[in-house]
Amino acid sequence: MNLGELVSALNGFASLSLAESWDNVGLLVEPSPPHAVSTLLLTNDLTEEVMEEAVQKKADLILSYHPPIFTPLKHVTWRTWKERLVVRALEHRIGIYSPHTAYDAIPHGVNNWLTKGLGESKDFSGACTSVPLHPSAAPSYPGEGTHRVEFCAENTEHLETLLSKIKDIQEISSVTTLPARVEGEEQTRVSLNCSQKALLEVVALLSKNSFLYHKTEILLLQKPLLPHTGMGRLCTLSEPVSLLAIIERIKSHLKLPHIRLAVGMGKTLESPVKKAALCAGSGSSVLKGVEADLYLTGEMSHHAVLDAVANGISVILCEHSNTERGFLSELRDTLAIHLQNKINIIVSEKDRDPLQVA
């Protein structure tokens, strides 16, 4: 599969517009074209050990959930490990692609996979329902422009002149006129969509012709929210389950012998859990202020944990990448279908969380 074709397909699987603004996603390293991809290696973190694995397995593209290039590189030398990743990738003609928070947001992504840890098994249809904690907006507005301006004016030749001048402004769209009755008088209702820049020109033009119109409204258009898409999840279980039972389910789902636990004030291991808020990775900012019986994430700051506990919310921490890595096996299967089995997709055997219990 041609690299450009594959990248387009990956962007179609999870639009990069869903990624957080601070993130660095997409194709990060591109070998000189033409570049064909026969083997795609999936990893949560691209370490030097994983890069060596990619070289040995003759991968043509690495999909690294976490972007190995995040802050700008000033050099590409052998001096630091992240620079060495780029050198090795280019030497062996291996591309690097990272989706990161785009995969957090999509309905079939990392957070959706993490919710399955709250059920009795991997297939727990009906055991709980989930909604995004912070819904994602569509990448574009429902119509052209960011603002809508509406006003009423008398039907005179001055109005026609005004409308002509408005239509001459760049980034104006959808100028419509409708008959209207204002205080018993026949008038014309004018409606138009425009950009932020054009809005300033429209307002300036209207202020010069204020004798013509009244009842002006300026509306900020909102991008529609995308269903089942966004950061974090709030899960409501069909039946309350004890905190102890939830712990065992999560350990089983993530294949972990241990988790870290903070029991909410006034709660015990037998306390029921009906609502659980979760966020793969680092969840402090996403979970902050959410009302739930339980917070589930990889890591939180000390003070964020204290705040949750003080509010009677228990906290389960599993370490950052442990709440993400298991998704790769599911991703391999869904990507194979999405890419019509045109390439070989493998999951890294060297990728692992850097932290362990000693």
Portion in helices:
25-40%
How would you classify the helix and strand content by structural class? alpha/beta
Strand content: 25-35%
The whole-number mean of residue pLDDT values reads 93
Count the helices. How many?
11
- Series of H and E elements: HEEHEHEHHEEEHEEHEEEHEEHEHEHE
- Biggest sheet character: 6 strands, mixed
- Radius of gyration in whole Å, from Cα? 27 Å
Distance between the termini: 44 Å
Strand order in space, largest sheet: 5-12-14-15-16-13
Shape: globular
Number of E-state strands:
17
Describe the structure.
The protein has 358 residues and is of the alpha/beta class. It has 11 helices and 17 strands. The strands form 4 sheets. Strands 5-12-14-15-16-13 form a 6-stranded mixed β-sheet. It has a 5-stranded mixed β-sheet with strand order 1-4-3-2-17. Strands 8-9-7-10 form a 4-stranded antiparallel β-sheet. The longest helix has 13 residues, at 196-208. Residues 121-126 have low confidence and may be disordered.
